[in-house]
Amino acid sequence: MKSYRKELWFDIKTRRAFINITPQVNECLQASGVTEGLALVNAMHITASVFINDDESGLHHDYEVWLEKLAPHEPVRQYRHNGYEDNADAHLKRQVMGREVVVAITGGQLDFGPWEQIFYGEFDGGRRKRVLVKIIGE
Q: Is-contact 138 37, C-beta < 8 A?
């Protein structure tokens, strides 16, 4: 069985963003040489997410609005966690959007359903963060 590991680094200047990382994960898959197996893609920070959905700007806007209603950033004093930081909302948003995805690899390709893409979700930008890509298989 083959095993491949790579870190993807992101430096998002805005507080929140959704970045389609499918091309980078595909590059990792090609480098791995795996044709049948699994790809794990996970955020390595507790205020960021990796998820699968459609790459459609209206949907991304809807996520922004919905997440801000669920866990508004302001006022920061509403969160007990914010004694030393102002990112409690980012922790909650990450919990809702998820930490990782696992995608089947079939015939040397990511085995997606229609319209599926992999996204990095940033909820507390302004510093470098990373995503782990781990690919295993034959």
A: yes
